[in-house]
Design a protein that fits this description.
heterotrimer, A alpha+beta, B mainly alpha, C mainly alpha, A: alpha+beta, Immunoglobulin-like, 2 domains, 5-stranded mixed sheet, C: mainly alpha, Four Helix Bundle (Hemerythrin (Met), subunit A), binds heme-A, binds dinuclear copper ion, binds copper (II) ion
């Protein structure tokens, strides 16, 4: 049987013995809290997060304070009986209405943000990046010098044509691809075209406060964001996608525009081999 | 009263006459109390199994076997080599499956539902005793089928308890398709058992209440189980349909969820969560009901706002069917729909708020007895509130974009499921144990068990909020492959050690449980001085429960009624002789002077 | 029983909901997919259409004959004729259904062909067929009971005993019929 003291001792010794407490990597923020945020929408998400944190924090203090007070004040004592009360309708109405307003306000405010992040059309000058997940890695496709990305068609996605591109598409001639290597310029809007070759994967970068599933058979083009600081992060897959799910990640660099141009210049255009298929049917902001 | 003398044997002639004995009694008995105990014992066994799986997966997270050490060397002396990534996936899938379908549901609904409903509404047995017993065996079979996955090639199901298609439904993507099929077949059969049970409960509660037991005199535990039964009845068949499609897709070449052939992966998610969300309320409503009863008894006070509590539970039941999309905000489904689900999810928190405030109202002004059952019930309230609060974060659509599928969610549902359902289960066991076995459990050991569980539970699960916010994903076999998670590893190890301590604290409970069967202090008929019908008969109640069908004269919570010698009035106690039956005190003529 | 049927209804609601989603996702004009045998109603109706219309009528009349049997039974007669007709109709329905399956398979349509089209059709009719079969077995039991009653009447006794078994089977059988109306509507007509 574990007593508290023995338990505590066991931890300390085990932690010490494991020898893995001394990781050299240094997070840019404390381990107990949110990682730093480098994306525009992240600020809004963090803001709502803190609003709810304060709200629930205060409510928690009130609820637990009351509870503990009642537990002490009304503990059973000799000669002191309980009062007899079946309740109070005024109170019921009060504590139904107040939460209704709080929760509705939260929902409405949150959805306004949601609409701004997800339903507005991304800026026209955004850098378009196509990302297609597969078991277990990331295919990325960048526009070449013309700044245009070939059109993706979810029905054309096959093993050899991960992006579902029509080889005749002139926009695609100068596109280049990378594998597990994402680089974006800081300060510029980035619009993602997300797809998947096999099972559901998901685009997740905690420093961007961004998660989006990529369901096979569809292409999503409504996710966009703008970064406001450079840094090196990891692009993680955060949807269970099989045995190798846990190590499906890519490098993600947010660099200065000059560095980005230098990086992009060195990449050769990617040839496309395909088999033909049916009409396009993508999920876009316009025809969600 | 003529009704009081009406023999109950008249309605249940076929199985009242004989009492099966010995081992046979435990294998094939139609008595609802025995069936309840069968459920209780089997699911306690499964609790240890599910907990064991959890401890294994926790160990892997703290000391992963593929760990890259800082100096580049691979491996960790503390890692368990047999936990490869595929097995890890099977571990959390089966951990959740066992806990949800073989522990929480059968304990709260199977064991306590069966045991308490007939006793609390004053009848001799369930409406269909045969279906009842059948449901137990079907349930057990379903569990064994799902667990059989561990012994087939490829191992047990490993696509998560949510089994998202097409990972779960296309053999080429799925390394354990046999296990996955067994899982789906088991779930289908499990559904049959749930439906049989629900059918039985509803019929029993509607038709077999004792004379005078109006709906609004029923204890809240019965109300909760009643509402839960409706949820089961309407939600579970949808899961059955979905799991049938899964089996067909995986084995017979149908294409429901296969996008390559025009199927829709998101259809699976809609069907699963249409079941899945009502399911989480299925796992909390009975707990809420039983906790309400225990709080009232031990505060020596009526439940505060009895009707508000009932309406709140009905509201939870109804709203529970329209919020499933909150699991899919970022799944790529229609974005306007997401916003709508965000609103309905916020709204469903309101009835929970009502319940919380009424629980506080119940202990207000009481004379609180801090026995083990009460401590666990109070912990339930506190932990449920914490879990509910994290639910609010996730229900906010923008915040969900960040926290979805992180350990923040793992923290949320363990607070509501362990902190909620499991603490309620402990409360209920400590509370009704004397009724079930005629002896009290040891209070000192009970309090030690409670303290250890409470402390280690919080040490184990609270930091999960932090690692989740820190960006740790769920369902990853090895967090140390991610740069941004390596710094979190000490917290993960701390969580694991707390989990182990939490697991081993349960040994105190087991010891107490089995020791008290023989050595516990004899309980007598009504050790807690409670008012409801089960406390008017012997402990354990005899076959057929009530020698004479009881007549009910008042609500379930008459504690500390002014002017009474005792601080509780049994539901069967007739109105005072000087007042005409049924006339409330305030309408009675007031004596002059 | 009603409670139980509510739950059965949810099972079919799940299947039908899934069907609607899958079908809408195909977009207009793609259902049935090109090349698949069209089982939907044509003008003028094809042979297969006539067969399925006939089969639907047979299943619906079986509800009527069942009801007739029940009415007779309540009047103190045996109702054996009504029940027997129901059993025959039920068997015919199942037989025709099996024939249709084989026919379609012969035409190249099976659970794994034509994308979700075949999957939906066979799964939904399969689930329904299984329910009809269970109902049919119950009807055989009812038929047996009514035969005993008929013999009792024949030998001059008054038949006694409850009608619960007949009533419950009736509920179930009518339910299975109603489900078929829905399935027929969405699979063959719309
Ligand atoms: C018993 C089980 C249970 C219960 C009761 C709940 C209750 C709630 N849950 Fe939870 N949930 C789960 C079990 C449960 N959940 C599980 C298992 C999952 C994960 C499944 C998986 O993916 O594997 C999940 C996931 C989950 C998600 C999806 C997260 C994601 O994957 O992105 C969301 C999102 O909205 C959510 C929300 C809520 C809300 C709003 C409540 C509310 O009902 C809570 C309401 C309660 C309170 C709010 C506290 C009391 C109220 C007050 C004291 C009033 C005052 C309060 C304020 C003013 C703030 N839950
Ligand atoms: C009622 C439900 C319930 C309960 C009680 C628990 C209890 C526990 N859970 Fe679980 N859990 C879920 C439901 C539940 N869980 C669900 C639904 C998921 C989601 C799965 C998914 O993603 O698909 C999940 C996932 C989940 C994860 C995330 C895995 C991942 O995403 O990678 C983790 C990680 O820490 C975890 C840990 C624990 C721990 C430490 C306990 C502890 O409380 C357990 C304490 C232990 C015991 C009570 C048993 C004691 C046993 C012994 C002392 C004997 C030892 C025996 C042997 C070695 C055989 N659970
Ligand atoms: Cu891809 Cu997880
Ligand atoms: Cu939910």
């Amino acid at each position: 049987m574990f007593r508290t003291k023995a338990g505590a001792l066991a931890w300390i010794s085990a932690l010490w013995a494991s020898g893995s407490t001394g990781w050299a990597e240094i997070r840019e923020t404390g381990v107990w809290w949110l990682p730093r945020n480098v994306s525009n929408f992240g600020h809004e998400i963090d803001f709502i997060f803190y609003v709810i944190l304060w709200l629930t924090g205060i409510t928690a203090v009130l609820v637990f304070g009351t509870m503990i007070y009642f537990m002490v004040r009304y503990r059973q004592r000799a000669g002191v009986g309980a009062i007899h009360s079946h309740g109070n309708n005024t109170l019921e109405i009060v504590w139904t209405t107040i939460p209704v307003f709080i929760f509705l306000a939260l929902a409405i405010y949150g959805n306004e943000m949601w609409a701004r992040m997800r339903m507005e059309v991304p800026p026209a000058d955004a850098l378009q990046v196509a990302i297609v997940g597969e078991q277990f890695g990331w295919n990325l496709r960048y526009p070449g010098p013309d700044g245009k990305l070939a059109k993706m068609d979810s029905h054309k996605i096959t093993k050899d044509n991960p992006f579902g591109i029509d080889p005749a598409d002139p926009d695609g001639k100068d596109d280049f691809t990378t594998y597990n290597d994402m680089v974006i310029p800081v300060g510029k809007a980035v619009r993602l075209h997300l797809g998947s070759k096999d099972v559901i994967h998901s685009f997740y970068v905690p420093e961007f406060r961004l998660y989006q599933d990529m369901v096979p058979g569809r292409v999503y083009d409504f996710v966009w964001f703008k970064t406001d600081a450079t840094g090196h992060f990891q692009l993680a897959c955060n949807q269970l996608c099989g045995q190798g799910h846990y190590k499906m990640f890519g490098k993600l660099g947010v660099v200065t525009p000059a560095e980005y141009d230098a990086w992009a210049k060195g990449k050769a255009p990617a040839a496309v081999t395909t088999s033909t298929a049916a009409a396009p049917e993508n999920v876009s902001v316009a025809n969600r | 009263m003529s009704t009081a003398t009406l023999s109950h044997a008249g309605t249940h002639d076929h199985h009242d006459s004989h009492e099966t004995s010995g081992w046979k009694k435990y294998l094939w008995s139609l008595d609802h109390k025995v069936i309840g105990l069968q459920y209780l014992f089997s699911s306690l066994l499964f609790l240890f199994l599910g907990g064991g799986l959890a401890l294994l997966l926790r160990w892997q997270l703290a000391f992963p076997s593929t760990q890259v050490m800082p100096d580049g060397a691979v491996g960790n002396p503390l890692s368990l080599a047999f936990i490869n990534p595929q097995f890890y996936n099977a571990l959390f899938t089966m951990h959740a499956t066992v806990m949800v379908f073989l522990v929480v549901m059968p304990v709260l609904i199977g064991a306590f539902g069966n045991y308490l409903i007939p006793l609390k509404i004053g009848c001799g047995d369930m409406a269909f005793p045969l279906i009842n017993e059948l449901s137990y065996w079907v349930w057990l079979a379903s569990g064994l089928i799902m667990l059989a996955g561990f012994f087939v090639a490829g191992g047990a199901a490993a696509a998560g308890w949510t089994a998202y298609a097409p990972l779960s439904t296309v053999g080429a993507y799925n390394a354990s398709s046999t296990g996955q099929s067994l899982w789906a077949v088991g779930l289908f059969i499990n559904g049959l058992a749930s439906i049989m049970g629900a059918f039985n409960y509803i019929t029993t509660i509607v038709n077999m209440r004792a004379p005078g037991m109006g709906f609004f005199r029923m204890p809240l535990a019965v109300w909760a189980l009643f509402i839960t039964a409706f949820l089961l009845l309407l939600a579970v068949p949808v899961l059955s349909a979905a799991s049938a499609m899964l089996v067909l897709d995986l084995n017979f070449g149908t294409n429901f969820f296969n996008p390559a052939q025009g199927g829709q992966p998101l259809l699976w998610q809609h069907l699963f969560w249409f079941f899945g969300h009502p399911e989480v309320y299925i796992m909390i409503l009975p707990a809420m009901g039983m906790v309400s009863d225990i709080l009232s008894v031990n505060s020596r006070k009526p439940v505060f706002g009895y009707r508000a509590m009932v309406y709140a539970m009905i509201a939870i039941g109804l709203l529970g069917f329209v919020v499933w999309g909150h699991h899919m905000f970022v799944s790529g489904m229609n974005l306007v729909l997401s916003a709508a689900f965000g609103v309905s999810t916020m709204v469903i928190a309101v009835p929970s708020a009502i319940k919380t405030f009424n629980w506080l109202g119940t202990i207000w002004g009481g004379a609180i007895r801090f026995n083990t059952a009460m401590l666990n019930a109070l912990a339930f309230v506190a932990m449920f509130v914490i879990g509910g609060f994290s639910g609010i974060f996730m229900a906010s659509t923008p915040v969900n974009i960040f926290v979805h599928h992180t350990y923040f969610i793992v923290a949320h549902f363990h607070y509501v499921l362990f902190g909620g359902s499991i603490f309620a289960m402990f409360a209920a066991i400590y509370f009704w144990y004397p009724k079930m076995f005629g002896r009290l459990m040891n209070e000192t050991l009970g309090k030690i068990h409670f303290a250890l569980t409470f402390v280690f539970f919080n040490l184990c699960f609270f930091p999960m909020h932090n690692v989740g916010l820190g960006g740790m994903m769920r369902r990853i076999a090895d967090p140390t492959v991610y740069e941004h998670l390596r710094a979190l590893q000490p917290i993960n190890q701390f969580i694991t050690l707390s989990a182990i301590a939490l697991g081993f604290s349960q040994i105190v409970f087991l010891y107490n449980f089995f020791r008290s069967l023989r050595h516990g202090q004899p309980a007598g008929q009504n050790p807690w001085e409670a008012t409801t019908l089960e406390w008017t008969v012997g402990s354990p109640p005899g076959h057929g429960n009530f020698a004479v069908t009881p007549t009910v004269y008042r609500g379930a919570y008459e504690y500390s009624v002014p002017g009474h010698a005792k601080d509780f009035v049994l539901q069967t106690e007739p109105p005072e002789p000087d007042s005409p039956a049924g006339v409330p005190a305030k309408f009675r003529p007031v004596p002059a002077g | 029983m009603l409670v139980f049927l509510a739950s059965e209804a949810m099972l079919f609601a799940g299947l039908i909901g899934g069907y609607i989603v899958l079908r809408l996702a195909q977009g207009p004009g793609n259902w049935p997919p090109p090349g698949a045998p069209d089982i939907g109603i044509q003008v003028p109706p094809t042979f297969l259409n006539w067969v399925m219309i006939g089969n639907t009528i047979i299943l619906l009349s079986s509800s009527l004959t069942y009801h007739w049997g029940e009415v007779c039974m309540r009047k103190g007669r045996s109702g054996v004729l009504g029940y027997a007709l129901t059993a025959v109709f039920g068997a015919v329905f199942l037989g025709v259904q099996a024939w249709e399956w084989l026919h379609l398979k012969h035409e190249g349509m099976w659970v794994n062909t034509f994308g979700t089209y075949g999957s939906c059709f066979f799964t939904m009719t399969g689930f329904h067929g299984a329910h009809v079969f269970i109902g049919w077995v119950a009807i055989l039991i009812v038929l047996g009971r009514s035969t005993i009653r008929q013999m009792q009447i024949f030998s001059g006794q008054t038949p006694v005993g409850s009608h619960t078994c007949e009533e419950l089977t009736g509920y179930y059988w009518h339910f299975v019929d109603v489900v078929w109306i829905f399935l027929y509507g969405i699979l063959y007509v719309l």
